[in-house]
Specification:
Number of strands: 2
Order of helices and strands: HHHEHHEHHHHH
Number of helices: 10
Largest sheet: 2 strands, parallel
Number of domains: 1
Helix content: 40-55%
Keywords: Membrane, Transmembrane, Transmembrane helix
Radius of gyration: 17 Å
């Protein structure tokens, strides 16, 4: 069995233990743990929904808390949000057509995606515990210009956001600002991006 298949077959409790008590960063474990949240949002069943009434396609405060717990676990606190984690967050965002979390997931989602984009572009990012905190404004650390931001990352984010029924206003506004400041070829390839929930 490969390391990846061992991770994907591990129970959620083991994944959480590994990222909360481990000393070695493993963002693949976090992405797999986030997939449990995604599956719970989609089906309304599973370890992240145990002990409470949970409807399919709904995201509540406990789901948002699971995401925050996974993303800010000790083992990965100084690591940037990975592409795999970001992809799973986009999947959760798309799956959750009903929200009852008072906006906590949207805040965490926007910050995590921008954390990934900035880090993937080689820009400095604060530790996850700071960047993803509900007490930290995204504007206090996120890039405000496209200088240094990788256009491939911006294109990937725009592609993920396109066609989504529910878009995150904070993320859409920030990415639109970055695209507006980016090179003309990028703006030309994303003509419909500014329509994303703005």
């Amino acid at each position: 069995m490969t390391s990846a298949s061992l991770i994907s077959n591990a129970p959620l409790s083991e994944l959480i233990r590994k990222i909360e008590t481990g000393s070695i960063a493993d963002r693949d474990v976090s992405a797999t743990a986030l997939a449990f949240v995604r599956d719970g949002v989609i089906t309304g069943e599973g370890p992240t929904t145990a002990g409470r009434v949970h409807f399919s396609r709904a995201l509540d405060a406990d789901d948002a808390a699971w995401c925050a717990r996974i993303l800010t676990a000790a083992a990965n606190t100084n690591e940037p949000v990975s592409r795999a984690e970001a992809e799973t967050l986009f999947e959760i965002n798309k799956a959750a057509t009903e929200r009852s979390d008072d906006g906590r997931f949207d805040d965490l989602f926007a910050k995590a995606i921008v954390h990934h984009a900035a880090a993937a572009s080689g820009l400095p990012v604060p530790p996850r515990s700071v960047a993803l905190s509900p007490d930290t404004s995204i504007e206090s650390w996120a890039p405000t210009t496209a200088v240094g931001v990788n256009t491939e990352v911006l294109e990937w984010i725009a592609k993920q956001m396109r066609g989504t029924r529910r878009n995150n206003r904070a993320l859409a506004a920030l990415v639109a600002t970055l695209i507006g400041a980016a090179t003309l070829p990028l703006a030309h390839t994303l003509p419909n991006f500014l329509d994303l929930g703005m």
